[in-house]
């Protein structure tokens, strides 16, 4: 093993504290080649697709990477902005907002950056840049409120893989999840209240989370339980009647059963049960992305309306809302004791 060479930090200087927020990542462009590279990296991650490697390699390279990139590129084109993918735009804004809040509170010794698990800016390159700037204590916060091995677990894998190549490493803290954090729950509840103050109260409020194969949760992934808990906590804050909301799972991929109920099937059946208006919120996504803006707000809207639904509302993600930034700053602050002293503590 040949380790990466890097400069030695002066042990007499205090060093800096790094806060790294991460998300899933997007292709570099909404075109076939970029989608192929992105999907190859993403879908080759054994945390994401838990299928025997040889079999999966044949399916991935033989079928999926020939069919999916074209289709997904078209979907990405429908949400792409001049500044890149929505996920990238929002994550960049979250990092800037969080940097302002944390530097106001703790001073310039705190450095805040963002990185993506797949595509760019890659976790290893961003971490390396932070260490170059003198970071010797690093807090990593994946912006997945609910833990899953496929997301937060995989982010830890990427960090560990990088540190495996280094001689020196910083002190490391890792935010596992924040599915029940008071400020996150409060920000979601406020978002719903504000949306409904403008658009009214629907027959049904649908909490939609990205799915994972049911098997992962049967084998011990806490994701399903954490999603249900998040919904319950928001419902408690808003004091919603039992029949006025439900929890669904979206973005199914492949043939085996995923977490249920499925969002698409639910929206196709609700009008037949007398539910004519719905609003959908996606609490598991900290930022709007392809899966919310295209899959939920366009594709699933159509399913509902085609099945006889009359009104469909999509409640945006928390993105870089002030309440979200302040929740993230609070979360970071709770993981920083001993490393920094806040001006307001
Ligand atoms: C194949 C299995 C997949 C698992 C398991 C999975 C879990 C998972 N994903 C997110 C968050 C996001 N996923 C996004 C896109 C996306 N997800 C999959 C597949 C799995 N996800 C694919 C193939 C794609 C790419 C788009 C497509 O081709 O359909 C995104 C959006 C990224 C963007 O650029 O906008 C997010 C965010 C979570 C939270 C999760 C498990 C809990
Ligand atoms: Fe996904
Ligand atoms: Fe999707």
Automatic annotation (TrEMBL):
Enzyme Commission identifier(s): 4.98.1.1
Pathway assigned in UniProt: Porphyrin-containing compound metabolism; protoheme biosynthesis; protoheme from protoporphyrin-IX: step 1/1
Keyword list, A-Z: Cytoplasm, Heme biosynthesis, Iron, Lyase, Metal-binding, Porphyrin biosynthesis
GO cellular component terms, A-Z: cytoplasm
UniProt-listed PROSITE patterns: FERROCHELATASE (PS00534)
Location within or outside the cell: Cytoplasm
Chief location: cytoplasm
Catalysed reaction, written as an equation: heme b + 2 H(+) = protoporphyrin IX + Fe(2+); Fe-coproporphyrin III + 2 H(+) = coproporphyrin III + Fe(2+)
One Pfam match: Ferrochelatase
InterPro entries documented for this protein: Ferrochelatase, Ferrochelatase_AS, Ferrochelatase_C, Ferrochelatase_N
One BP annotation, GO: heme biosynthetic process
Binding site for Fe(2+): 210, 291
SUPFAM superfamilies: Chelatase
GO MF term list: ferrochelatase activity; metal ion binding
Keyword presence, Cell membrane: no
Source species, domain of life: Bacteria
PANTHER family linked: FERROCHELATASE, FERROCHELATASE, MITOCHONDRIAL
Purpose: Catalyzes the ferrous insertion into protoporphyrin IX.
Protein family per UniProt: Belongs to the ferrochelatase family.
Protein name in UniProt: Ferrochelatase
Taxonomic source organism: Mangrovimicrobium sediminis
Organismal lineage: Bacteria, Pseudomonadati, Pseudomonadota, Gammaproteobacteria, Cellvibrionales
Gene this chain is encoded by: hemH
């Amino acid at each position: 093993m040949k380790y990466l060479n890097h400069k030695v930090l002066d042990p007499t200087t205090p060093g800096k504290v790094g806060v790294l927020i991460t998300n899933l990542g997007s292709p570099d462009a909404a075109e076939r080649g970029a989608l192929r590279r992105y999907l190859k990296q993403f879908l080759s991650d054994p945390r994401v697709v838990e299928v025997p490697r040889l079999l999966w390699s044949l399916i991935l390279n033989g079928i999926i990477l020939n069919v999916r990139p074209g289709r997904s590129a078209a979907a990405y084109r429908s949400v792409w902005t001049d500044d890149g993918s929505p996920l990238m735009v929002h994550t960049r804004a979250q990092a800037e907002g969080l940097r302002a809040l944390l530097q106001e509170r703790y001073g310039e010794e705190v450095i805040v950056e963002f990185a993506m698990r797949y595509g760019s800016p890659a976790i290893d390159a961003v971490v390396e840049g932070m260490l170059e700037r003198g970071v010797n204590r690093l807090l990593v916060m994946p912006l997945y409120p609910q833990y899953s091995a496929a997301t937060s677990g995989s982010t830890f894998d990427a960090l560990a893989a990088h540190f495996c190549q280094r001689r020196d490493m910083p002190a490391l803290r890792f935010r596992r999840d924040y599915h029940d954090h008071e400020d996150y729950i409060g920000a979601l509840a406020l978002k719903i209240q504000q949306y409904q103050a403008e658009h009214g109260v629907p027959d049904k409020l649908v909490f939609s989370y990205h799915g994972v194969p049911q098997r992962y949760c049967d084998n011990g992934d806490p994701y399903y339980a954490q999603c249900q808990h998040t919904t319950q906590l928001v419902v408690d804050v808003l004091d919603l009647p039992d029949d006025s909301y439900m929890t669904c799972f979206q973005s199914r991929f492949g043939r085996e059963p995923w977490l249920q109920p499925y969002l698409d099937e639910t929206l196709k059946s609700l009008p037949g049960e007398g539910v004519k208006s719905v609003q959908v919120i996606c609490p598991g996504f900290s930022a709007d992305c392809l899966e919310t803006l295209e899959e939920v707000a366009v594709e699933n809207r159509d399913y509902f309306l085609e099945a006889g639904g009359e009104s469909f509302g999509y409640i945006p993600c928390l993105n870089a809302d002030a309440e979200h930034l302040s929740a993230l700053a609070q979360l970071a602050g709770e993981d920083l004791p001993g490393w920094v002293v806040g001006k307001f503590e």
